[in-house]
Amino acid sequence: MRKSWLVCVVVVYFMAGWMDSVQAGSWIVEKGQPRAEIVIAERPARTVRLAAAELQEYIQKISGARLPIVTQPSGKAIKLYVGRSPYTDQLGVTAEGLKYGAYRLVSGDDWMVFLGEDTEFVPREPWPRSHASIASGQLQKAWEALAGGPWGVPNATMWKDRHQIPATVGLPDAAPRPGKNEYFELWAYDERGSYNAVCGFLHKLGVRWLLPGELGEIVPRMDSIPLPKIDETVRPDFEIRQFSFHGPWEWAQWAMRLGARYPYGLQTAHGMVRLARPEIFAAHPDWFAMYGGKRRFDPESQKNHFCYSNEELFREMVRYVRAQFDVYEFEGVSVMPPDAYISICQCPLCAGKDDPQRGPRGVLSNHVWDFVNRVAKEVAKTHPGKLIYCCAYGSYSLPPTNIDKLEPNVQVLLVGGRRPKSGVAQQAEIRAFRESWLPKTQRPLMIFENYPLTGRGWYLPCFMARTIGRSINESKGISRGEEIWISPHQKLDGAAAFDAFQVYFTARMYWGGKEQDVAALLDEYCRLLYGPAAEQMKAFFDYCELHWQDMERDKQKAETALRLFEEAKAKLDPSSIEARRLALLDKFLDGLRTKSKQLGQKRGVVPKLRLVGEAKGIVIDGRLDEPFWKTINLGSVGRLRELQTGRPPALGTTVMAGWYGNNLYFGIRCQEVPGEKPNVTTRKHDDPAIWYGDVVEILLETNMHSYYQIAVNAAGAVADLDRAVSKDSALNWDSRAEVATEVAEDHWTIEIRIPVTDDENDPLHMVVGRPPTQSLPWYVNICRQRVRHNGMEHSAFSPT
Question: N or C: which terminal CB in the chain sees fewer CB atoms within 10 Å?
Answer without folding.
Answer: N
